């Protein structure tokens, strides 16, 4: 079963398919450092280029393929996030990255994979009144594909992280379906009846890693490096209650002026909870100012190793680039357990 990965990133989706027995023929990726990570770990070629400029035929020629069984496509999601949609509505402009949702149809029409697996943020469904989603669905149907899509949460498929994503599976030869959940809320009847496994938690993913103080680096693992917080940020972090506390618990003298003016963003400078899945990992995961990215117990933001584990990457997966580049590769990836669940569904289709 041959799979190719368009917008391949560092390879989270391809790794999930490889672990389920697919042969990964290669990827297309605009970011050089992400392509190095993909090539090294997946042992597959990557064409470095912009999908808006690289033709589907050139991509196939680069890989030396005439046909493929599966095409994985996870276009950049930043243009479809709720915050981005809000900002662009106020400015009256669109994010050019969103055109990639339509460009994808040209790849499908030329490559004609037996199955397409598409992943993006749920905001795709509401962008421009749903115009992009309709264009994608109608275009796939014109190409002869039957389509199944919905919003799936990676936590329900074994990832130790809440991460809701739009998943679309399109098939030429069989009626597609979305994979059923394998995990659930431990308080639910399905888990109590052992029909589902309980959600994997932050504790499951990172509790065994050596403790670090702010600014420390583990000598045996350069990715297990704690952010070096300034004195004020460290004072804020120390004042946040362990195991799930948030900035709402801070005394007035430690409240940041910007937070006093804004009612939202309650998760910034929040601690993760040991016995729950983590919040959605993003490219800003190395900074507590970007979300609930403070360690549940230790007075520091989480490390890139911890972030990689929350995305399901094994410890021997190597990332290329500086801290910011690696954080983006980790945060932009499809969680590996979710990719494996999708790969199992695709195997049934094939």
Explain briefly what this protein structure is.
This protein has 13 helices and nine strands. With 350 residues, it is α/β, with parallel strands linked by helices. The longest helix is centred in the C-terminal third of the chain and has 14 residues, at 336-349.
Major β-sheet profile: 7 strands, mixed
Q: What's the β-strand tally?
A: 9
The unreliable regions are 79-93
SSE arrangement, N to C: EHEHEHEHHEHEEEHEHHHHHH
The top level CATH class name of the domain at 2-186 and 335-349: Alpha Beta
What is the assembly state of the chains in this entry? single chain
Query: What share of the residues does DSSP label as strand, in percent?
Result: 5-15%
**Which strand order does the major sheet show?**
3-2-1-4-5-7-6
CATH architecture of the domain at 2-186 and 335-349: 3-Layer(aba) Sandwich
In DSSP terms, counting alpha (H) and pi (I) runs of 4 or more, how many helices? 13
The CATH superfamily name of the domain at 2-186 and 335-349 is Vaccinia Virus protein VP39
Shape field? globular
**Which class of secondary structure composition applies to the elements?**
alpha/beta
Radius of gyration, in Å, reads 21 Å
- The end-to-end span amounts to 8 Å
CATH fold topology of the domain at 2-186 and 335-349: Rossmann fold
């Amino acid at each position: 079963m041959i799979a190719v990965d368009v917008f391949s990133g560092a390879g989270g989706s391809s790794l999930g398919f490889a672990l389920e027995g697919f042969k990964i023929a290669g990827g297309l990726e605009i970011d050089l450092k992400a392509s190095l990570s993909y090539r090294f770990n997946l042992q597959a070629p990557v064409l470095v280029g912009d999908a808006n400029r690289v033709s589907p035929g050139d991509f196939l020629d680069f890989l030396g393929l005439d046909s493929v069984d599966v095409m994985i496509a996870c276009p950049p999601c930043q243009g479809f996030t709720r915050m981005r949609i809000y900002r662009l509505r106020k400015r009256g402009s669109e994010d050019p990255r969103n055109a990639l949702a339509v460009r994808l149809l040209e790849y499908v029409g030329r490559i004609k994979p037996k199955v397409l697996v598409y992943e993006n943020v749920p905001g795709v469904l509401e962008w421009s009144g749903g115009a992009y989603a309709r264009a994608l669905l109608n275009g796939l149907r014109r190409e002869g594909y039957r389509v199944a899509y919905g919003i799936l949460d990676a936590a329900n498929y074994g990832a130790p992280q809440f991460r809701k994503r739009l998943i679309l599976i399109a098939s030429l030869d069989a009626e597609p379906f979305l994979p059923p959940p394998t995990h659930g809320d431990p308080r639910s009847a399905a888990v109590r009846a052992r029909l589902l496994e309980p959600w994997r938690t932050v504790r499951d993913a990172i509790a065994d890693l050596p403790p670090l103080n702010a600014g420390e680096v583990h000598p045996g693992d350069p990715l297990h490096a704690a952010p070096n917080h300034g004195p004020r940020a460290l004072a804020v972090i120390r004042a946040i209650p362990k195991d799930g506390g948030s900035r709402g618990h801070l005394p007035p003298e430690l409240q940041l002026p910007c937070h006093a003016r804004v009612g939202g963003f309650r998760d910034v400078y929040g601690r993760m909870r040991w016995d729950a899945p983590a919040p959605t990992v993003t490219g800003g995961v190395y900074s507590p100012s970007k979300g609930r990215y403070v360690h549940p117990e230790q007075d520091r933001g989480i490390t890139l190793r911890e972030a990689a584990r929350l995305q399901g990457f094994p410890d021997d997966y190597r990332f290329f680039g500086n801290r910011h580049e690696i954080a983006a590769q980790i945060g932009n990836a499809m969680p590996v357990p979710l990719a494996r669940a999708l790969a199992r569904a695709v195997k049934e289709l094939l």
